Amino acid sequence: MEMEAVESNTLPGAAGRRTSKRDRRVFLACVFILANNCFQYTAFFAVSTNLVNYLKDQLHVGSKAAANGVTNWLGTSSITPLVAAFLADAFLGRYWTIALFLLISVVAYVVLTVSAAAALESSAFYAGLYLLALGGALQPVLISFGADQFDEADEAERGRQSSFFNWFYLSINVGSLIGGTVLVWVQSSVSWGLGYGIPALLSVVTVAVFLAGTAAYQRHQPPGGSPLTRVAQVVVAAARKCRVEAPEDASELHECEADDGMSAIQGSRRLAHTDQFRFLDKAAVETAADKARPSPWRLCTVTQVEELKCVLRLLPVWASGIIFAAAYTQMTTTFILQGDTLDPYVGGFRVPAAVLSVFDTLSVMLWVPLYDRVIVPLARRATGRDRGFSQLARMGVGLVVLTAAMLAAGTLEVQRRRVVARHGMYDTNTGADGRYLPMSIFWQVPQYVVVGASEVFTFIGQMEFFYDQAPDAMRSLCSGLSMTSFALGNYVSSALVTVVARATARGGRDGWIPDDINRGHLDNFFWLLAMLCIGNFGVYLLIARWYTYKKTVD
To answer: Which interval of the chain is the signal sequence (predicted)?
Structure first.
């Protein structure tokens, strides 16, 4: 397949105009990409959701070792997208990177299926598991490839591109809902072999779906060479010229100009000069020595310098996502600890605490079309922006909404502790049925729903922001960078729980998070998280005010 630059589809003399044929192709391309993503995540969540039970029941690993095994694997799965993203931006291009890693995931699922069905040694299972961590690392590349299909020079298509990010995230949640419920039930109630065999079949389907859409993929960002090398060249060149004065007039800085607005970096538009991080401008100052002995390690273009500036500007926004992720991950930890003490029965049917996370998924599935079809059009009329909100404003709303979720969880915990005191259940849960507090677990639903709403604003906003504000030749890599904030948020949450539990349990006290939370103060922990969210939002407002949006020369 011949790889062509994203600008190659503009019809001569008709820039910005779209034909109905092009509209259909863009729509078909998005359908193939969204279907592919949904199948991928159905298979992935089928493995990840019930992995701890497979390690315990089938590989006979202890509970602690199994939990650590899952954590290590998920951590690896959060880092490997950077590998795929780097290959896509630097050498292979997005199309071929997706095709390659989809094939790797097929091999991974086959190994897992054979291992589960034939009860092979654990080494075979772990080999398949970590192959999956590599092969399943496609989100930043796939979302960048999908967004590439829209013409950013056309305002209407920019609006559709923004909608694409919403529907991409929705496809993830549909996949997680099916994989984390239906396929987990197959694993637990039928067999592990079949429970892993269906994801293996879905992985084959993802390859077929992606390749079937090849003719519809009309816009391809060519690989621009190693972005790490270009960044290193700017740093080295600026350091070598630390005594050189950068001119006040940015037009005197070195740039390789072209009539079509493209830079010397393949497939990348020229970036306009910005005044932040002025020290780096020294790398683009052309001296007599540069003219005598040209070297990319002594003289860089303005676009190359601005690439590094773009990344540096993204880092504070990226860091603000860590606290958000730390609060968000309470769904899988303290929310479940809280729910484990509440009455899970509806009639004769028992609802495990972990299952309530389905309300978060359903909330996302409700909020995505509501945001895309109702909120954005209203905001568009009020602000005049084609996307309704600025990307930074959208993420900021999500930070506030998640604070409300922590407050809701804390309020419920206060009520739960009152029930504990009323029934004298401080040591164990000894409610009417001998196990649970006489308080329905469904009181937790509001906090899950609010968390889902915060995802639609912040997580999707991050996807769109990191793609849009990244240099053309670094979009996959910057999209992958945004995912690492979620991984770090998990680590921050674990560290926070450990520190708080130890600090509040001194002097023989039970502390906020003891083994029996009926004797603890989990409400105080939720208040602490709410305060951290508020503080994070305050810092985020300063970051948003300081941030300078990327500008291209055209």
So the answer is: none
How far lies 346's CA from each of 314, 342, 384, 439, 440, in Å? 47, 12, 48, 12, 9
> Which residues, 6+ apart, have CB-to-CB distance to 116 below 8 Å?
54, 58, 125, 192, 193, 195, 196
Domain map of the chain by residue range? 20-216, 227-306, 307-546
Q: Is-contact 16 197, C-beta < 8 A?
A: no
**Tokens read off for 482:** 């945004």
Q: Which residues of the chain have pLDDT under 70?
A: 1-19, 63-64, 67, 257-261, 427-435
Cβ proximity of 328 and 454 under 8 Å: yes
- Fold classification of 20-216 is Growth Hormone; Chain: A; (1.20.1250)
- Encoded tokens for 231: 């960044």
Cut 0.85: pTM above it: yes
CATH fold of 307-546 reads: Growth Hormone; Chain: A; (1.20.1250)
CA distance 264 to 242: 24
pLDDT one-digit tens code per residue, 490-523: 888 888 888 888 888 887 788 888 877 888 888 9
Count helices and strands (H / E) in the chain.
20, 4
